[in-house]
Design the sequence.
Protein backbone atom coordinates (compact mmCIF):
# COMPACT_ATOMS: atom_id res chain seq x y z
CA UNK A 1 0.00 0.00 0.00
CA UNK A 2 1.23 3.49 -0.84
CA UNK A 3 0.19 6.76 0.78
CA UNK A 4 -1.97 9.10 -1.28
CA UNK A 5 -2.58 12.82 -1.20
CA UNK A 6 -5.75 13.42 0.76
CA UNK A 7 -5.20 10.39 2.99
CA UNK A 8 -6.40 10.87 6.57
CA UNK A 9 -3.95 11.37 9.44
CA UNK A 10 -5.41 8.26 11.08
CA UNK A 11 -4.61 6.15 8.00
CA UNK A 12 -1.09 7.61 7.78
CA UNK A 13 -0.29 6.72 11.40
CA UNK A 14 -1.64 3.23 10.90
CA UNK A 15 0.33 2.76 7.66
CA UNK A 16 3.60 3.95 9.20
CA UNK A 17 3.09 1.88 12.36
CA UNK A 18 2.31 -1.25 10.33
CA UNK A 19 5.27 -0.72 8.01
CA UNK A 20 3.05 -0.42 4.92
CA UNK A 21 4.90 2.73 3.94
CA UNK A 22 7.48 5.10 5.39
CA UNK A 23 7.30 8.67 6.61
CA UNK A 24 9.55 9.49 3.62
CA UNK A 25 6.83 8.10 1.29
CA UNK A 26 4.25 10.28 3.06
CA UNK A 27 6.44 13.37 2.77
CA UNK A 28 7.10 12.71 -0.93
CA UNK A 29 3.45 12.37 -1.87
CA UNK A 30 2.47 15.59 -0.09
CA UNK A 31 5.41 17.56 -1.50
CA UNK A 32 4.35 16.33 -4.95
CA UNK A 33 0.78 17.54 -4.35
CA UNK A 34 2.14 20.95 -3.34
CA UNK A 35 4.35 21.04 -6.44
CA UNK A 36 1.37 20.25 -8.66
CA UNK A 37 -1.23 22.62 -7.28
CA UNK A 38 0.31 25.36 -5.21
CA UNK A 39 1.24 27.59 -8.12
CA UNK A 40 -2.51 28.08 -8.68
CA UNK A 41 -3.72 27.84 -5.08
CA UNK A 42 -0.88 29.64 -3.27
CA UNK A 43 -1.58 27.99 0.06
CA UNK A 44 2.09 27.84 1.10
CA UNK A 45 4.31 30.80 1.94
CA UNK A 46 7.42 28.63 2.40
CA UNK A 47 8.32 24.97 2.08
CA UNK A 48 11.86 23.70 2.60
CA UNK A 49 11.87 20.28 0.93
CA UNK A 50 15.27 19.39 2.39
CA UNK A 51 14.01 20.01 5.95
CA UNK A 52 10.85 18.00 5.27
CA UNK A 53 12.84 15.03 3.97
CA UNK A 54 15.26 15.23 6.92
CA UNK A 55 12.37 15.09 9.38
CA UNK A 56 10.84 12.14 7.54
CA UNK A 57 14.14 10.25 7.54
CA UNK A 58 14.51 10.84 11.28
CA UNK A 59 10.97 9.55 11.87
CA UNK A 60 11.74 6.44 9.81
CA UNK A 61 14.89 5.81 11.82
CA UNK A 62 12.81 6.12 15.00
CA UNK A 63 10.36 3.57 13.65
CA UNK A 64 13.14 1.19 12.63
CA UNK A 65 14.41 1.47 16.22
CA UNK A 66 11.00 0.35 17.51
CA UNK A 67 9.28 3.69 18.25
CA UNK A 68 5.57 3.98 17.44
CA UNK A 69 4.66 7.63 17.95
CA UNK A 70 0.99 8.72 18.19
CA UNK A 71 1.26 11.00 15.14
CA UNK A 72 4.05 9.10 13.37
CA UNK A 73 4.59 10.68 9.95
CA UNK A 74 1.52 12.95 9.92
CA UNK A 75 2.25 16.09 7.85
CA UNK A 76 1.17 19.39 9.38
CA UNK A 77 0.94 22.74 7.55
CA UNK A 78 1.58 25.71 9.84
CA UNK A 79 0.06 29.19 9.57
CA UNK A 80 2.78 31.75 8.96
CA UNK A 81 2.40 33.53 12.28
CA UNK A 82 3.57 30.41 14.16
CA UNK A 83 7.31 29.78 14.51
CA UNK A 84 8.82 26.69 12.91
CA UNK A 85 12.58 26.43 13.48
CA UNK A 86 14.54 27.01 10.29
CA UNK A 87 11.68 28.71 8.39
CA UNK A 88 10.87 32.43 8.22
CA UNK A 89 7.83 33.80 10.09
CA UNK A 90 6.71 36.50 7.65
CA UNK A 91 3.03 36.96 8.55
CA UNK A 92 2.44 38.69 5.22
CA UNK A 93 4.71 41.58 6.29
CA UNK A 94 7.66 42.05 3.92
CA UNK A 95 10.12 43.50 6.49
CA UNK A 96 9.87 40.12 8.30
CA UNK A 97 10.98 38.12 5.24
CA UNK A 98 14.41 37.47 6.75
CA UNK A 99 13.08 36.46 10.18
CA UNK A 100 14.13 32.82 10.39
CA UNK A 101 12.73 31.24 13.56
CA UNK A 102 15.40 29.74 15.79
CA UNK A 103 12.95 27.71 17.87
CA UNK A 104 9.64 26.01 17.30
CA UNK A 105 6.50 27.50 18.81
CA UNK A 106 5.28 25.42 21.77
CA UNK A 107 2.51 23.73 19.73
CA UNK A 108 4.94 22.88 16.90
CA UNK A 109 7.48 21.41 19.33
CA UNK A 110 4.72 19.36 20.95
CA UNK A 111 3.40 18.03 17.64
CA UNK A 112 6.95 17.15 16.54
CA UNK A 113 7.52 15.24 19.79
CA UNK A 114 4.40 13.20 18.97
CA UNK A 115 5.79 12.26 15.55
CA UNK A 116 4.23 14.93 13.29
CA UNK A 117 6.15 16.24 10.31
CA UNK A 118 6.16 20.00 9.70
CA UNK A 119 5.51 20.47 5.98
CA UNK A 120 5.81 24.25 5.69
CA UNK A 121 4.28 27.64 6.42
CA UNK A 122 0.92 28.68 4.99
CA UNK A 123 -0.16 32.10 3.79
CA UNK A 124 -2.07 34.35 6.17
CA UNK A 125 -3.66 37.73 5.75
CA UNK A 126 -1.15 40.30 7.00
CA UNK A 127 -0.71 39.73 10.77
CA UNK A 128 -3.93 37.68 10.70
CA UNK A 129 -6.19 40.70 10.06
CA UNK A 130 -8.31 41.63 7.02
CA UNK A 131 -6.13 42.38 3.99
CA UNK A 132 -6.64 39.32 1.75
CA UNK A 133 -3.86 36.71 1.42
CA UNK A 134 -2.68 35.62 -2.07
CA UNK A 135 -4.33 32.20 -1.56
CA UNK A 136 -7.17 31.04 -3.89
CA UNK A 137 -10.30 29.07 -3.07
CA UNK A 138 -9.91 25.53 -4.51
CA UNK A 139 -13.60 25.33 -5.51
CA UNK A 140 -13.48 28.54 -7.56
CA UNK A 141 -10.27 30.50 -7.95
CA UNK A 142 -12.16 33.80 -8.15
CA UNK A 143 -13.87 33.35 -4.78
CA UNK A 144 -12.37 34.10 -1.39
CA UNK A 145 -10.53 31.44 0.64
CA UNK A 146 -11.50 33.62 3.65
CA UNK A 147 -8.98 34.68 6.25
CA UNK A 148 -6.96 34.98 8.11
CA UNK A 149 -5.79 31.33 8.03
CA UNK A 150 -6.36 31.16 4.27
CA UNK A 151 -3.46 28.88 3.33
CA UNK A 152 -4.14 26.38 6.11
CA UNK A 153 -7.83 26.32 5.21
CA UNK A 154 -6.91 25.46 1.60
CA UNK A 155 -3.99 23.05 2.21
CA UNK A 156 -6.27 20.45 3.82
CA UNK A 157 -9.13 20.18 1.28
CA UNK A 158 -6.57 20.38 -1.56
CA UNK A 159 -4.90 17.24 -0.20
CA UNK A 160 -1.59 19.03 0.42
CA UNK A 161 -1.61 18.25 4.14
CA UNK A 162 -4.01 16.17 6.28
CA UNK A 163 -3.65 18.56 9.23
CA UNK A 164 -3.03 22.30 9.40
CA UNK A 165 -2.66 24.84 12.19
CA UNK A 166 -4.53 28.15 12.13
CA UNK A 167 -5.42 30.90 14.55
CA UNK A 168 -8.62 32.77 15.41
CA UNK A 169 -9.03 36.18 17.04
CA UNK A 170 -12.40 36.88 15.41
CA UNK A 171 -13.28 34.11 12.93
CA UNK A 172 -10.04 33.03 11.29
CA UNK A 173 -10.13 29.28 11.89
CA UNK A 174 -13.82 28.60 11.33
CA UNK A 175 -14.49 30.84 8.33
CA UNK A 176 -11.73 29.43 6.08
CA UNK A 177 -13.00 25.95 6.97
CA UNK A 178 -16.49 26.88 5.78
CA UNK A 179 -15.38 28.68 2.59
CA UNK A 180 -12.90 26.00 1.49
CA UNK A 181 -14.78 22.89 2.60
CA UNK A 182 -12.86 21.26 5.45
CA UNK A 183 -13.27 20.89 9.21
CA UNK A 184 -12.00 23.70 11.43
CA UNK A 185 -11.74 23.33 15.20
CA UNK A 186 -11.02 26.09 17.69
CA UNK A 187 -10.53 24.65 21.18
CA UNK A 188 -11.36 26.43 24.43
CA UNK A 189 -9.36 29.66 24.91
CA UNK A 190 -6.00 28.95 26.52
CA UNK A 191 -6.01 25.24 25.73
CA UNK A 192 -3.19 25.51 23.17
CA UNK A 193 -0.20 27.62 24.21
CA UNK A 194 0.44 30.79 22.20
CA UNK A 195 4.18 30.69 22.97
CA UNK A 196 6.09 31.32 19.73
CA UNK A 197 3.04 32.76 17.93
CA UNK A 198 2.79 36.39 16.79
CA UNK A 199 0.01 37.93 18.89
CA UNK A 200 -2.89 39.96 17.52
CA UNK A 201 -5.11 40.48 20.59
CA UNK A 202 -3.87 38.52 23.60
CA UNK A 203 -7.16 37.92 25.36
CA UNK A 204 -8.89 36.72 22.17
CA UNK A 205 -6.13 34.82 20.32
CA UNK A 206 -6.74 31.07 19.90
CA UNK A 207 -4.84 28.44 17.94
CA UNK A 208 -6.92 25.91 16.04
CA UNK A 209 -6.74 22.88 13.77
CA UNK A 210 -7.91 21.90 10.29
CA UNK A 211 -8.62 18.31 9.23
CA UNK A 212 -10.80 16.31 6.84
CA UNK A 213 -12.43 14.03 9.40
CA UNK A 214 -13.57 14.33 13.00
CA UNK A 215 -11.54 11.17 13.71
CA UNK A 216 -8.37 13.00 12.66
CA UNK A 217 -9.18 15.96 14.91
CA UNK A 218 -9.90 13.59 17.75
CA UNK A 219 -6.55 11.83 17.12
CA UNK A 220 -4.65 15.12 17.35
CA UNK A 221 -6.66 16.36 20.33
CA UNK A 222 -6.23 13.18 22.35
CA UNK A 223 -2.56 12.84 21.39
CA UNK A 224 -1.95 16.36 22.67
CA UNK A 225 -3.79 15.39 25.86
CA UNK A 226 -1.69 12.21 26.09
CA UNK A 227 -4.85 10.13 26.20
CA UNK A 228 -5.73 7.08 24.17
CA UNK A 229 -8.11 7.23 21.22
CA UNK A 230 -11.51 8.74 21.97
CA UNK A 231 -14.23 6.33 23.01
CA UNK A 232 -17.77 6.77 21.83
CA UNK A 233 -20.03 7.93 24.62
CA UNK A 234 -20.98 4.89 26.66
CA UNK A 235 -24.68 5.70 27.07
CA UNK A 236 -25.17 6.27 23.30
CA UNK A 237 -27.62 9.05 24.15
CA UNK A 238 -28.18 11.28 21.10
CA UNK A 239 -27.03 14.82 21.84
CA UNK A 240 -29.17 17.71 23.04
CA UNK A 241 -28.59 20.55 20.62
CA UNK A 242 -29.62 24.18 21.07
CA UNK A 243 -30.47 25.53 17.62
CA UNK A 244 -29.75 29.28 17.45
CA UNK A 245 -32.30 29.98 14.73
CA UNK A 246 -31.98 33.78 15.02
CA UNK A 247 -28.78 33.56 12.93
CA UNK A 248 -30.70 32.08 9.99
CA UNK A 249 -32.52 35.38 9.59
CA UNK A 250 -29.14 37.10 9.20
CA UNK A 251 -27.97 34.61 6.53
CA UNK A 252 -28.23 34.09 2.77
CA UNK A 253 -31.23 31.87 1.89
CA UNK A 254 -28.93 28.98 0.87
CA UNK A 255 -27.22 29.09 4.28
CA UNK A 256 -30.51 29.37 6.19
CA UNK A 257 -32.01 26.50 4.18
CA UNK A 258 -29.01 24.29 4.83
CA UNK A 259 -28.88 24.80 8.59
CA UNK A 260 -32.61 24.06 8.78
CA UNK A 261 -32.01 20.86 6.79
CA UNK A 262 -29.25 19.81 9.22
CA UNK A 263 -31.48 20.50 12.24
CA UNK A 264 -34.25 18.37 10.71
CA UNK A 265 -31.84 15.51 9.93
CA UNK A 266 -30.59 15.59 13.52
CA UNK A 267 -34.17 15.27 14.80
CA UNK A 268 -34.87 12.39 12.38
CA UNK A 269 -31.80 10.62 13.79
CA UNK A 270 -33.17 10.90 17.32
CA UNK A 271 -31.30 14.00 18.46
CA UNK A 272 -33.00 16.56 20.67
CA UNK A 273 -32.95 19.87 18.80
CA UNK A 274 -34.49 22.83 20.61
CA UNK A 275 -34.80 26.28 19.06
CA UNK A 276 -33.29 28.75 21.49
CA UNK A 277 -31.64 32.16 21.82
CA UNK A 278 -28.45 33.16 23.59
CA UNK A 279 -29.18 34.89 26.92
CA UNK A 280 -27.01 37.81 25.74
CA UNK A 281 -27.85 39.49 22.45
CA UNK A 282 -25.56 38.92 19.51
CA UNK A 283 -25.14 42.70 19.12
CA UNK A 284 -23.88 42.99 22.71
CA UNK A 285 -21.37 40.19 22.24
CA UNK A 286 -20.16 41.62 18.95
CA UNK A 287 -19.65 45.15 20.25
CA UNK A 288 -17.64 43.94 23.25
CA UNK A 289 -15.47 41.83 20.97
CA UNK A 290 -14.84 44.67 18.55
CA UNK A 291 -13.69 47.08 21.27
CA UNK A 292 -11.31 44.57 22.90
CA UNK A 293 -10.02 43.41 19.52
CA UNK A 294 -9.31 46.93 18.26
CA UNK A 295 -7.66 48.14 21.47
CA UNK A 296 -5.43 45.09 21.90
CA UNK A 297 -4.52 45.02 18.20
CA UNK A 298 -3.55 48.70 18.39
CA UNK A 299 -1.40 48.12 21.45
CA UNK A 300 0.40 45.24 19.67
CA UNK A 301 0.96 47.10 16.39
CA UNK A 302 0.96 50.86 16.91
CA UNK A 303 4.73 51.29 17.24
CA UNK A 304 5.41 49.11 14.21
CA UNK A 305 2.77 50.98 12.17
CA UNK A 306 4.53 54.25 12.99
CA UNK A 307 7.89 52.79 11.92
CA UNK A 308 6.69 51.00 8.76
CA UNK A 309 3.43 52.66 7.66
CA UNK A 310 3.89 51.84 3.97
CA UNK A 311 4.50 48.14 4.64
CA UNK A 312 1.13 47.70 6.33
CA UNK A 313 -2.01 46.75 4.42
CA UNK A 314 -4.72 49.41 4.49
CA UNK A 315 -7.23 47.44 6.58
CA UNK A 316 -4.93 46.55 9.44
CA UNK A 317 -3.38 50.02 9.38
CA UNK A 318 -6.79 51.70 9.61
CA UNK A 319 -7.83 49.25 12.31
CA UNK A 320 -4.73 50.00 14.37
CA UNK A 321 -5.07 53.76 13.96
CA UNK A 322 -8.75 53.64 14.94
CA UNK A 323 -8.10 51.22 17.81
CA UNK A 324 -5.46 53.53 19.26
CA UNK A 325 -8.25 56.04 19.93
CA UNK A 326 -10.00 53.73 22.44
CA UNK A 327 -9.62 54.91 26.03
CA UNK A 328 -8.46 52.70 28.87
CA UNK A 329 -11.86 53.25 30.53
CA UNK A 330 -13.73 51.91 27.52
CA UNK A 331 -11.41 48.90 27.28
CA UNK A 332 -11.86 48.10 30.98
CA UNK A 333 -15.63 48.30 30.63
CA UNK A 334 -15.56 45.99 27.63
CA UNK A 335 -13.37 43.49 29.51
CA UNK A 336 -15.73 43.61 32.49
CA UNK A 337 -18.68 42.92 30.19
CA UNK A 338 -16.78 40.06 28.55
CA UNK A 339 -16.35 38.37 31.96
CA UNK A 340 -20.06 38.87 32.75
CA UNK A 341 -21.13 37.42 29.42
CA UNK A 342 -18.86 34.38 29.90
CA UNK A 343 -20.46 33.70 33.30
CA UNK A 344 -24.03 34.29 32.05
CA UNK A 345 -23.68 31.97 29.09
CA UNK A 346 -21.86 29.26 31.06
CA UNK A 347 -24.72 29.17 33.61
CA UNK A 348 -27.32 29.04 30.82
CA UNK A 349 -25.55 26.40 28.69
CA UNK A 350 -26.17 23.53 31.09
CA UNK A 351 -29.05 21.84 29.33
CA UNK A 352 -27.30 21.52 25.97
CA UNK A 353 -24.40 19.41 24.71
CA UNK A 354 -23.79 21.89 21.89
CA UNK A 355 -25.22 24.90 20.09
CA UNK A 356 -25.90 24.81 16.33
CA UNK A 357 -25.75 27.75 13.91
CA UNK A 358 -24.24 28.55 10.49
CA UNK A 359 -20.48 29.11 10.47
CA UNK A 360 -20.79 32.10 8.12
CA UNK A 361 -23.79 34.06 6.85
CA UNK A 362 -22.86 33.38 3.20
CA UNK A 363 -21.01 31.09 0.83
CA UNK A 364 -17.48 32.19 -0.18
CA UNK A 365 -17.54 35.82 -1.25
CA UNK A 366 -15.50 37.65 -3.89
CA UNK A 367 -11.77 37.34 -3.21
CA UNK A 368 -11.35 41.07 -2.68
CA UNK A 369 -12.88 40.40 0.78
CA UNK A 370 -12.30 37.72 3.41
CA UNK A 371 -15.96 37.23 4.39
CA UNK A 372 -18.37 37.99 7.21
CA UNK A 373 -16.77 37.40 10.63
CA UNK A 374 -19.87 38.05 12.74
CA UNK A 375 -21.06 34.47 13.32
CA UNK A 376 -17.66 33.27 14.50
CA UNK A 377 -17.29 36.06 17.08
CA UNK A 378 -19.50 34.71 19.92
CA UNK A 379 -17.36 31.57 20.44
CA UNK A 380 -14.18 33.65 20.19
CA UNK A 381 -15.25 36.31 22.69
CA UNK A 382 -16.54 33.70 25.13
CA UNK A 383 -13.53 31.39 24.64
CA UNK A 384 -15.81 28.44 23.89
CA UNK A 385 -14.75 25.46 21.76
CA UNK A 386 -16.27 25.58 18.28
CA UNK A 387 -16.11 23.43 15.18
CA UNK A 388 -17.12 24.06 11.57
CA UNK A 389 -18.27 21.05 9.53
CA UNK A 390 -18.55 21.21 5.70
CA UNK A 391 -21.95 19.58 5.24
CA UNK A 392 -23.50 21.38 2.27
CA UNK A 393 -22.96 22.83 -1.20
CA UNK A 394 -24.61 25.93 -2.60
CA UNK A 395 -26.13 26.09 -6.08
CA UNK A 396 -22.98 27.96 -7.10
CA UNK A 397 -20.85 24.92 -6.29
CA UNK A 398 -19.37 26.39 -3.11
CA UNK A 399 -19.20 24.71 0.32
CA UNK A 400 -21.50 25.59 3.21
CA UNK A 401 -20.43 25.08 6.81
CA UNK A 402 -22.33 24.49 10.02
CA UNK A 403 -20.98 25.51 13.39
CA UNK A 404 -21.23 23.62 16.68
CA UNK A 405 -20.26 25.43 19.88
CA UNK A 406 -19.53 23.55 23.10
CA UNK A 407 -19.08 24.43 26.77
CA UNK A 408 -15.75 25.72 27.99
CA UNK A 409 -13.21 22.95 28.62
CA UNK A 410 -15.61 20.29 27.28
CA UNK A 411 -13.86 20.10 23.93
CA UNK A 412 -13.95 16.30 23.84
CA UNK A 413 -17.74 16.35 24.28
CA UNK A 414 -18.02 18.80 21.39
CA UNK A 415 -15.93 16.48 19.19
CA UNK A 416 -18.26 13.64 20.15
CA UNK A 417 -21.34 15.66 19.09
CA UNK A 418 -19.56 16.52 15.83
CA UNK A 419 -18.84 12.85 15.22
CA UNK A 420 -22.51 11.97 15.87
CA UNK A 421 -23.68 14.70 13.49
CA UNK A 422 -21.33 13.62 10.68
CA UNK A 423 -22.91 10.17 10.88
CA UNK A 424 -26.28 11.89 10.32
CA UNK A 425 -25.28 14.50 7.72
CA UNK A 426 -22.34 13.42 5.53
CA UNK A 427 -19.44 15.75 4.88
CA UNK A 428 -18.89 17.02 1.33
CA UNK A 429 -16.01 15.53 -0.66
CA UNK A 430 -12.81 17.22 -1.78
CA UNK A 431 -12.77 19.87 -4.52
CA UNK A 432 -11.89 18.68 -8.03
CA UNK A 433 -8.49 20.24 -8.77
CA UNK A 434 -8.24 19.90 -12.56
CA UNK A 435 -8.68 23.67 -12.94
CA UNK A 436 -5.76 24.28 -10.53
CA UNK A 437 -2.97 22.67 -12.57
CA UNK B 1 13.33 67.76 -28.91
CA UNK B 2 9.62 67.11 -29.16
CA UNK B 3 7.86 70.45 -28.57
CA UNK B 4 5.00 68.58 -26.90
CA UNK B 5 7.19 66.77 -24.37
CA UNK B 6 6.78 69.41 -21.70
CA UNK B 7 3.00 69.32 -22.12
CA UNK B 8 2.96 65.53 -21.86
CA UNK B 9 5.12 65.62 -18.73
CA UNK B 10 2.88 68.23 -17.16
CA UNK B 11 -0.23 66.21 -17.90
CA UNK B 12 1.40 63.08 -16.48
CA UNK B 13 2.38 64.95 -13.34
CA UNK B 14 -1.19 66.19 -12.91
CA UNK B 15 -2.61 62.71 -13.49
CA UNK B 16 -0.22 61.25 -10.92
CA UNK B 17 -1.13 63.96 -8.48
CA UNK B 18 -4.85 63.38 -9.08
CA UNK B 19 -4.41 59.62 -8.59
CA UNK B 20 -2.55 60.23 -5.35
CA UNK B 21 -5.27 62.56 -4.13
CA UNK B 22 -7.95 60.01 -5.04
CA UNK B 23 -6.01 57.31 -3.17
CA UNK B 24 -5.60 59.59 -0.15
CA UNK B 25 -9.32 60.40 -0.20
CA UNK B 26 -10.16 56.69 -0.33
CA UNK B 27 -7.79 56.02 2.58
CA UNK B 28 -9.38 58.82 4.62
CA UNK B 29 -12.82 57.46 3.88
CA UNK B 30 -11.79 53.92 4.90
CA UNK B 31 -10.27 55.21 8.15
CA UNK B 32 -13.37 57.33 8.82
CA UNK B 33 -15.52 54.22 8.31
CA UNK B 34 -13.37 52.28 10.80
CA UNK B 35 -13.68 55.05 13.37
CA UNK B 36 -17.43 55.28 12.78
CA UNK B 37 -17.77 51.49 13.27
CA UNK B 38 -15.74 51.60 16.48
CA UNK B 39 -17.69 54.54 17.79
CA UNK B 40 -20.93 52.56 17.33
CA UNK B 41 -19.37 49.59 19.09
CA UNK B 42 -18.22 51.82 21.98
CA UNK B 43 -21.71 53.27 22.30
CA UNK B 44 -23.12 49.74 22.54
CA UNK B 45 -20.56 48.85 25.23
CA UNK B 46 -21.43 51.98 27.25
CA UNK B 47 -25.14 51.15 26.92
CA UNK B 48 -24.49 47.63 28.27
CA UNK B 49 -22.37 49.00 31.10
CA UNK B 50 -25.21 51.28 32.18
CA UNK B 51 -27.62 48.34 32.03
CA UNK B 52 -25.65 46.20 34.51
CA UNK B 53 -27.54 45.83 37.76
CA UNK B 54 -24.45 46.30 39.94
CA UNK B 55 -22.40 49.47 39.93
CA UNK B 56 -18.66 48.99 39.48
CA UNK B 57 -18.42 50.78 42.84
CA UNK B 58 -20.20 47.90 44.55
CA UNK B 59 -18.66 44.75 45.97
CA UNK B 60 -17.07 42.89 43.06
CA UNK B 61 -17.67 39.20 42.54
CA UNK B 62 -14.47 37.19 43.01
CA UNK B 63 -14.19 36.34 39.34
CA UNK B 64 -14.06 40.01 38.43
CA UNK B 65 -10.70 40.47 40.08
CA UNK B 66 -8.73 37.96 38.05
CA UNK B 67 -8.05 37.28 34.45
CA UNK B 68 -10.75 35.54 32.48
Sequence:
Amino acid sequence: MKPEAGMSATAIVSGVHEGEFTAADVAAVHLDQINQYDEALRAFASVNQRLVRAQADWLDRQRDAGARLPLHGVPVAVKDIIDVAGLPTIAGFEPFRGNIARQDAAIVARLRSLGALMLGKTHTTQFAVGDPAPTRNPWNLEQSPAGSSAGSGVAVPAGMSPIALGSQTAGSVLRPAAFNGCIGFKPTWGWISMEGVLPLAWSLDHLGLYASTVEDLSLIYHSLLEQGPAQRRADKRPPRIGYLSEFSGMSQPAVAGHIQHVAEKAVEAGGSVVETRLPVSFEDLFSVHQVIFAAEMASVHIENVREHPEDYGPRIRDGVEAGALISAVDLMQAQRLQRRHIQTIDSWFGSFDALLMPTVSSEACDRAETGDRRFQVPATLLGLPAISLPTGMSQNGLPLGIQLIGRANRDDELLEVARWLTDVVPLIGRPPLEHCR
Amino acid sequence: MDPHEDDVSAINRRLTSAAELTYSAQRCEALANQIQHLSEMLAAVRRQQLGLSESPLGRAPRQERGER
Observations:
- Helices of chain B lie at 5-51.
- Chain B has a mean pLDDT of 80.
